[in-house]
UniProtKB/TrEMBL annotation:
Family: Belongs to the PPR family. P subfamily.
Keywords: Repeat
Protein origin, superkingdom: Eukaryota
GN (gene name): LOC111274822
Organism: Durio zibethinus (Durian)
The protein, known as: Pentatricopeptide repeat-containing protein At1g09900 isoform X2
Length: 841
């Protein structure tokens, strides 16, 4: 079938015989889902004319094909009411297809993709009630509203059908991750930055050969969850391929471990539109993702979404809800949910109780946690070791070793849970982690007496704890004890000792320990050498650390990003900025990128020494290499230029920020505004302030103080008041006029300060009283007691009480100038208000 033969009338004749539309359906899929110019061999169509050249025919065909969405059409594997999914879900992973834009420009929706593989939904129908529009954009952590509506969802549950915990979880074998197809696809994904049509064609070909579990292995193999999500979307758009249901659940499980809640929501929406059964576990993954993003309100709204979708809550989702509330420090709401689920017949299990025990320990209510364990047996739910370990962990953190031992006895006495090697390993690690090495050593001795063998990991934890405290002799004795027991220390143990020597400044012994590791057949790794580099830099030997990195290849170790960062910070602190910049350049050349904080420290150090050109060259080099340069880095460099009064360079760099797609913030503008005002360029400062407001940036308190200081310094009060009105319309500041009066007083412009006094004498705030007192004191210093007296009278008229001691000074000054009537009247005002007794007067 040739594309040039497609016309409106031919399509009309073809649609009259639906049974012969399969070829046409395939043709539609071909041109909707593949790159321009790529035509499958199985379809003998030539790319001489594309389907979007006939928009009206396409619309007619699309409308006709949509009529089959509710019917049993055995040849199509996807419902056409999936309209618009791909347009909404498209992420530019490997897709450079411009044809979609042409369809979109014609206002034609993508009607979905077709497959020849048949229906994989097992008869599952899409749920039209699954509406995600109610998830409004919330601020992170916005949980000010009560979640009682979410709890009401439990009232609709049928307790007889929600007791099972049938979690859809895919467990992959190691062989599936090592499969050649999986490894090759992962390799191609890593080359996505240099993508070309041939590589995409290879990836598309390999994708069709993958089994569902292998697709899951590809997703789980990605270090960056965003890349996994983009691959998921890209694969979903490919012709003659569709995701198996287990792939959706694996993708949701991956996203539940991140803050990518919007991605999880879109995957769940795709499941509904593809007709994939949305089990309760899928909604549970979305809840956890919202929780990790700090959005408790939307996390609990998922329960309402489940109800509207006709999916009943089960115990697993209820446990997830309680876990989400506990992690958000909403223990009271978790307890309410716990009570409500029991009322509707959902019986909690040990996981439910463990979540609440964790919540009690988080808020330091260990007594309530112990009481909950005591109540579990009466509810036919015996606590497990996790229940006790959770409380033990809290007690270890508080160094309550006796209480831990009592809990171990109760665990054995009441629940027949006897301490085993896992118990002792847990206690040793917990105590060592919180710096209680002596107590951890006691449990190690007790475990050995009971016949348990604590491995090198437990010993290393104690060694590391001793080394952090600088108790290197105790750490060395533990290492010697390990050797005598035949428990050979590993690289982690020796690295802890090296770090311990470095912490107390014994660098020679640390170096000998690195050599000692070779003698015992334990090769130092990058972490070991990095610990030694840290010690060198901490003791002012950064150049020696730099030399060690230069000969790292001879020592058969490779520095990592942390190694470079340690040496760079050491050189910077010692003032060796040129060497520090060279380290960063070498770091970038090795494929390690410094963080914006590290970049900023180098720029700041160079600016402090006045090396502005070197700082700018360093910033441009980082930007060209693809480092994560942010607005703070530019602001630091601009501040350096302003400190040197090189305003032209600062303004030029401000323009360069837009070219680099790094938009200045309020701090950046404030820095330049201050420098312009300092140099008397008030007109330019005003224009820049207005430009900042027009860009939608709110002035900060520092912006207000800067503008007020510079304008008052120049005596431009009228211009200042006009500018402040525009700033206040954007961002309110209650003390702005107080600041103006106080600044005018500091510059001696008392006449303008007195004019603004009426603006602040409206509220009886402490700030306004302080401002008036300052103005009175300034008048008094200028030997103008009558003006100070008038300010005090205006304060009394507004029921504000001036400072008594200051008023007494004003009164004495008035008497000296022969104004005794005003002096007596001022003191009388205090007597009338009960602030001064008549005898004192």
């Amino acid at each position: 079938m040739r594309s040039g033969s497609f016309s409106y009338h031919r399509i009309q004749r073809t649609l009259a015989r639906p049974c012969k539309c399969i070829g046409l359906f395939q043709f539609h899929t071909c041109f909707c889902c593949i790159k321009v110019g790529f035509i499958p061999k199985k379809l003998s169509c030539e790319p001489t004319s594309r389907f979007y050249d006939y928009p009206f025919a396409y619309i007619r065909f699309n409308a006709y094909f949509s009529s089959f969405s509710g019917r049993n059409f055995s040849h199509g594997s996807r419902a056409v009411s999936d309209s618009g999914v791909h347009c909404a879900e498209r992420d530019n992973f490997l897709d450079e297809n411009g044809d979609y834009d042409k369809f979109r420009d014609m206002s034609v929706q993508d009607s979905g993709e077709l497959s020849l593989f048949g229906d994989h939904n097992d008869g599952c129908q899409k749920n039209p009630n699954l509406n995600f529009d109610e998830f409004a954009v919330e601020e992170e952590g916005d949980d000010c509203h009560d979640d009682g509506d979410s709890f009401m969802v439990l009232n609709s549950c049928n307790g007889h059908h929600v007791q099972t915990e049938d979690v859809w979880r895919v467990k992959l074998e190691e062989d599936e991750f090592r499969h050649p197809l999986v490894r090759e696809i992962c390799r191609l994904i890593q080359l996505r930055s240099a993508w070309n049509p041939k590589l995409e064609s290879d990836l598309r070909h390999l994708l069709r050969s993958l089994k569902p579990r292998q697709v899951c292995a590809v997703l789980l193999s990605q270090d960056d969850e965003r890349v996994a999500l983009q691959f998921f979307y890209w694969a979903d758009r490919q012709w003659r391929y569709r995701h198996n249901p287990i792939v959706y659940y694996v993708m949701l499980e991956i996203l539940s471990k991140t803050k990518l809640c919007q991605g999880a929501k879109r995957v769940l929406r795709l499941m509904a539109r593809r007709g994939i059964e949305c089990r309760p576990e899928a909604f549970g993954y979305l809840m956890v993702s919202y929780s990790r993003a700090g959005n408790l309100r939307n996390a609990m709204k998922v329960l309402t979404l489940m109800q509207k979708a006709g999916v009943e809550l089960n115990l697993a989702v209820c446990n997830t809800a309680i876990h989400v509330l506990v992690m958000a420090n909403k223990l009271e709401k978790a307890l309410r949910f716990f009570e409500r689920m029991q009322i509707v017949g959902i019986i909690p299990n040990v996981v439910t109780y463990n979540c609440l025990i964790k919540g009690y320990c988080t808020v330091h209510q260990v007594e309530n946690a112990l009481q909950l364990i005591a109540e579990m047996s009466s509810k036919n739910c015996s606590p497990d070791k996790v229940s006790y370990y959770t409380i033990m962990s809290f007690l270890c953190k508080q160094k309550q070793v006796n209480e831990v031992r009592d809990l171990m006895e109760k665990m054995a006495k009441y629940n027949n849970l006897f301490p085993d090697q896992v118990t002792y390993n847990t206690l040793i690690h917990m105590l060592s982690k919180h710096g209680y090495a002596d107590e951890a050593l006691e449990f190690l001795r007790e475990a050995e007496v009971r016949g348990f063998q604590i491995d090198k990991v437990g010993h290393s934890a104690i060694v590391h704890s001793y080394c952090k405290q600088g108790r290197i002799n105790e750490a060395k004795s533990i290492v010697n004890e390990m050797l005598s027991k035949g428990c050979s220390p590993d690289v982690v143990t020796y690295t802890a000792v090296v770090d311990g020597f470095c912490r107390i400044g014994k660098l020679e012994q640390a170096k000998k320990m690195l050599q000692h590791m070779y003698k015992h057949g334990c090769k130092p790794n990058t972490v070991s050498y990095t610990a030694f580099l840290t010690g060198l830099c901490r003791n002012g030997s950064s150049l020696q650390a730099r030399e060690m990195m230069n000969v790292s290849e001879e020592e058969l170790w490779t520095p990592n990003a942390i190694s470079y960062s340690v040496v760079m910070h050491g050189l910077r602190k010692e003032g060796k900025l040129c060497e520090a910049c060279n380290v960063v350049k070498e770091m970038v050349s090795k494929g390690f990128f410094p963080t914006p904080v590290e970049i900023n420290l180098i720029i700041q150090s160079l600016c402090q020494e006045g090396k502005m050109d070197e700082a700018k060259m360093f910033l441009e080099g980082c930007l060209n290499k693809g480092c994560a340069v942010n607005v703070v880095n530019f602001t630091t460099l601009i501040h350096g230029y302003c400190q040197k009064d090189d305003l032209e360079a600062a303004l030029s760099l401000l323009d360069d920020m837009y070219l680099s797609n790094k938009h200045p913030d309020a701090v950046t503008y404030t820095t330049v505004i201050d420098a312009l005002g300092k140099n008397g360029r008030i007109k330019e400062a005003t224009d820049l302030t207005i430009k900042m407001l027009k860009k939608g940036l709110d002035p900060t308190p520092v912006t207000y103080r800067t503008v007020i200081h510079r304008y008052c310094q120049m005596g431009r009060v009228e211009d200042l008041l006009k500018l402040l009105e525009k700033m206040l319309s954007r961002q309110k500041c209650k003390t702005v006029y107080n600041q103006v009066i106080e600044k005018l007083c500091s510059f001696g412009n008392l006449e303008e300060a007195d004019k603004l006094l009426a603006r602040i004498l409206r509220t009886a705030s402490r700030t306004n009283i302080n401002t008036c007192n300052l103005l009175m004191e300034t008048y008094l210093i200028r030997e103008m007691p009558l003006s100070a007296y008038k300010v005090a009278c205006r304060m009394f008229n507004r029921n504000l009480i001036p400072d008594l001691k200051l008023s007494e000074k004003v009164s004495k000054q008035l008497v000296l100038e022969g104004k005794s009537v005003e002096a007596d009247n001022l003191m009388l005002q205090f007597v009338e208000r009960g602030c001064l007794s008549p005898q004192c007067e």
